[in-house]
Amino acid sequence: MSHPSAWQTHRQYAATAARWTADRWAKESDRRRTLRATRKPLVRDARAALAQAQATDPQKVTSLVHRAERELATAKRRVPDPMWLFASKAALATAAAGYVGLPLVPGRVWMWAAVAVGVAVAGAVLWALLHRPAASPIEPTAEERDLLKRLQPEHWREHAEQRGLAGTLTGRPRLTESGIVVAVRLDGQWTATKLRGSEDHIRALLGARTGLRLQIKAGKQGGWAELTLRTRSAADGDDLLWAPERRSLGIDTVTGEHVAVALGERLLIAGRSGAGKSVASRPLLFDASEGDTNALVIIDLKRVEGRLWDHRARVASTPEEVIAVVDEVEAEMHDRLNVLPKGQDTWGPTADRPRITVVVDEGAEVVTAADKVPFPEEDGDGKTKVRTRSALPGLESIARMGRAACIDLWWMTQKPTIGDGVPKQIAPQISTSICLAVRTPAEARVVLGEDAQAKGWNADELPAPGVALIRDGKRGPDPVKVRYMDKAVVIALPDQPIWSRTTTPATATGAPTLTLVKPSAAAPVVAAVDGTDARILDAIETAAAPVRQKDLAETTGLSKGTVSKAVKRLTDTGHITRQPDGGLTADKAA
Ligand SMILES: Nc1ncnc2c1ncn2[C@@H]1O[C@H](COP(=O)(O)OP(=O)(O)OP(=O)(O)O)[C@@H](O)[C@H]1O
């Protein structure tokens, strides 16, 4: 090895050793600082206890004072010296020992000691090189560096009192993938809830920006709280574009977990205009329209989102279509409930009678527009009359009773207020709420529950678009970054059969073929009769003479409306015929 390269190697070793020593020094002084900050208050307490003991028993008749003195000595012993004092004491002790002892050491021992020290130093350097801890993959940003400094116990102690936080003390802050986490020691007058109430003071003490999310919860031990500053998101760096192989709704920004919402829930999706409701609902609409046993119905008077899905969903975009589709879904629901086998709580979806998800986009507008709509209806005598109808009662009944029939209502609104945005009868039926950014805490409470603010569900502070809180009884208030599903992706999705009560299920693979069952003079196409229709047909078939429609309600126990609709369907499909005098007879050939 040439001289310059040997010199360079030695310099590198020396630099590594110096770095290692500096690193150890910094860590040790840090450890001592934290311990001192935590234990010094205990010395103060012990000193106060001693003073009290001395006042109580000045003559030292009992062991009270003696015990307090011992406790004070123990408390003092447990407070480590600061690093500079410890190092100075160690250097002084070594120097004194050397001064006294070294002249007595023989020359041979000197030589072997020098060899041993050299070998030890070389070994230590080698060991340090091989066991160097991997550099932390998390590099603090400038903001995090500032916050980390201000969270150090010394800084906190110095400023806590003037910020109304006397009696609290931070531990050592850690930088994690979702932000900075620090334990906070609380004295007798503090609790985690009280600390949560002082969030503004903490923000001021740390000089944290207003938009930075702070989370305070009870610590792992009594007397401690955990403060988290959400400076970063665990979803950072993830690919949030929706794709068939990445089908979750989004990613938890705290844990980095994929968050999915299963079908079968009654959903409320709320958020102010532009918060990302439509985009957030797309992965869910995909699931609800995918597969043989799922069918999607979209009620969308804005005709924007619904149109994207009209190759996979039944879309109602006028008030009349809304009334008609709600009637159909409601009749289907009653049919299913009527034939639900005894002991079975919920309908098992099949290709013939799939799970139906009814999505009401901009629910408040639907309720207003589909109200008192002139709608032609057949009355008991088979005559068509125009009545005014509203969609709301049907939607309410689907929300109330649909679950058992495997028919789920999803309500989307940008005005999440009870009465105006979410109907009073529907709000209590909601089982899962997906709340994007809303305007006010009151709106957040309507969507996420009365306890929303108190428990950290602050949807009014969410960034927009595309960040949601999901309250389903299982998740906590960690924001979820929602996947982005573009309109073009929706349009390019393969077709799916469109549900209708007069639709026979598609059996062919590939592009589904839908057959609308309509009466035809040449070759009548007859649908299978089940549920309510079967009951009505049975009552007509078993009657000795033509049956009048109004008598059917009595014989079958069904409501007049249900009977009227069933009679119309059976007449249309050729199962029954209405005689000139209004009597109904069964057509056995059908
Ligand atoms: N998850 C997301 N990631 C990225 N951008 C998003 C996301 N969600 C929404 N956006 C952006 O926000 C815009 C508005 O989103 P969207 O149309 O879903 O809002 P909205 O709440 O349905 O609004 P409105 O109620 O007015 O219809 C989108 O065009 C898109 O550019």
Automatic annotation (TrEMBL):
Keyword Nucleotide-binding: yes
List of residues binding ATP: 271-278
Top-level lineage group: Bacteria
Keyword Nucleotide-binding appears in the UniProt entry: yes
GO biological-process terms attached to the record: regulation of DNA-templated transcription
A Pfam family the protein falls into: MarR_2
Domain FtsK, chain residue ranges per copy: 256-445
InterPro entries, per the entry: ArsR-like_HTH (IPR011991), FtsK/SpoIIIE/SftA (IPR050206), FtsK_dom (IPR002543), HTH_MarR-typ (IPR000835), P-loop_NTPase (IPR027417), WH-like_DNA-bd_sf (IPR036388), WH_DNA-bd_sf (IPR036390)
Region (Disordered), start-end ranges: 571-590
Keywords: ATP-binding, Membrane, Nucleotide-binding, Transmembrane, Transmembrane helix
GO molecular function, a single term: ATP binding
Protein name, UniProt field: MarR family transcriptional regulator
Lineage start: Bacteria, Bacillati, Actinomycetota, Actinomycetes, Kitasatosporales
